Amino acid sequence: MIQRIQTIYLILTFLIIGILPFIFPLWVLKDGKEFYFMQNQFYVILLGLSTAITIYSIVSFKKRQTQFVANRLNIILNLILLGLFVYHSLNLSGETVIVSEKGIGMFLPILAIVFLVLANKAIKKDEDLVKSVDRLR
Q1: Could you tell me which of 116, 110, 58, 56 has the C-alpha nearest to residue 81?
Q2: Are 71 and 116 within 8 A, CB to CB?
Q3: What is the distance between the alpha carbons of residues 38 and 126, in angstroms, rounded to a whole number?
Q4: Mind listing the pLDDT tens digit for each residue in 89-105?
Q5: Percentages helix, strand, coil for the chain, rounded to the nearest 5?
Q6: Burial of 97 from C-beta contacts in 10 A (0-12 / 13-18 / 19+)
Q7: 123-134, pLDDT tens digit by residue?
Q8: Which of 129, 1, 10 is nearest to 70 (CA)?
């Protein structure tokens, strides 16, 4: 259901994780070439899995508890992805090695985590509302 705020948050998460990594590079190499996520197979797998979980969460709007668990799993996956990006940039940073400057693409998992947390708050709010209505019957 598009009118729910959590669906909007999840669509924004899909845009951040599924589309923006193709546009923004993770970092710029010393020779001026941009390094995109597609150049590392492990990043492709993690971002693809995160995108698939986001799509699954969007289409399972009738099962709020399943949606909540899928979002939590997606948050953990994005934290792992962010940790890998930071690890790679800290190990290979500096002008003497490969990476010259960090790109915006490195910080996309942070935005995705923020929107997933907001979606989970909205799902929890809906769940509490349904439980309070059931209590009145």
Answers
A1: 110
A2: yes
A3: 37
A4: 777 655 555 556 777 88
A5: 75, 5, 20
A6: exposed
A7: 999 888 888 887
A8: 10
For 10, 25, 45, 68, 99, the CA distances from 117, given in Å and listed in that order, are 10, 25, 22, 10, 31
Q: Which two tokens stand for residue 107?
A: 């910080």
Under a CB-based contact definition with an 8 Å cutoff, are residues 26 and 37 in contact?
yes
The residue count of the chain comes to 137
Closest CA to 105 of 18, 26, 36, 48: 26
Amino acid (one-letter) located at 82: L
State mean pLDDT over 55-60: 93
108-80-19 Cα angle (round to 5) = 30
Q: What whole-number distance in Å separates Cα of residue 91 and Cα of residue 95?
A: 12
| Percent of the chain with pLDDT strictly greater than 90 | 50
Ranges of each domain in the chain: 5-130
Instruction: Output DSSP code: residue 19.
Output: I
CA distances (Å), 91 to each of 46, 97, 98, in order? 20, 9, 10
